Amino acid sequence: MVPGEKIQLTREGYESLVKEKEELKNKLMTEIAERIKEARELGDLSENSEYEEAKNEQGKIDSRIKEIDYILENAEIIDESESNTEEINLGNTVIVRDLSKNIEETYKIVNSQEADIFSEPKKISSDSPLGKALLKKRIGDKVKFKTPSNKIKELEIIAILKYGGA
Fold first, then answer.
1. Phi-psi region of 102 (alpha: psi -120 to 50; beta: other; left: phi over 0)
2. Residues 87, 129, 92, 157: is their CA dihedral positive or negative?
3. Which positions fall inside the Transcription elongation factor GreA/GreB N-terminal domain (predicted)?
4. Which pTM does this prediction carry?
5. Domains (range + CATH), the chain
6. What is the model's pLDDT at position 2?
7. 8 A C-beta contact, residue 37 and residue 51
């Protein structure tokens, strides 16, 4: 992340990060603090693996909270009114046909912080090979990209839905 650079997020992505931060803060303040307290009560901290594990977990959670704070402080929420269906941009949902398998797939283009291939529709990063191939393309365009497993895939863009998938 480049200092001062705006990080574009969908409204859904922004709200998800706010929720994650609150959950992490609550976990950090309650569960981890309790684990550290219990581990301290066991005595010698130099040979106390429970204490070390709890402190490591505390550090990881604290780092993630700081990362989320940075993202939220530099967030620029995508303006829904600027969304169009002429060409693919961040926030659009896209329906494509895999030309080798003749099946349709649906993807939502998001930034790397929001990417989640297990969601429905699959949220793919605009920085991924597929995301980069789709950006600024139009209905009817065909795109080729290399998958992480080094296979070349070719897709045809069937539909571009407005921000939020509607």
1. left
2. positive
3. 7-77
4. 0.73
5. 7-77 (1.10.287.180), 82-165 (3.10.50.30)
6. 64
7. no
Cβ count within 10 A of residue 115: 19
Rounded to whole angstroms, the Cα distance separating 164 from 76 reads 16
- Nearest CA to 82 out of 92, 97, 74, 73 is that of 92
HSE of 115, CA atoms in CB hemisphere, 13 A: 11
State the Cα–Cα distance between residues 116 and 76, nearest whole angstrom: 20
> Can you say how many angstroms the Cα of residue 82 is from the centroid of all Cα atoms in its chain?
21
Q: Range with the lowest mean pLDDT among 21-25, 42-46, 61-65?
A: 42-46
Instruction: Check whether 40 has a pLDDT greater than 50.
Output: yes
Q: Please report which confidence band the pLDDT of residue 83 belongs to, taking 50, 70 and 90 as the band edges.
A: low
Residue 166 pLDDT class (50, 70, 90 cuts): very low
pLDDT of residue 21: 95
Tokens 């990060």, residue located = 17
Q: What is the mean pLDDT of the segment spanning 6-35? A: 88
For residue 115, CA distances in Å to 3, 119, 144, 145 come to 21, 9, 20, 18
Q: Which two tokens stand for residue 25?
A: 């803060």
Q: How far apart are CA 130 and CA 5, in angstroms?
A: 23
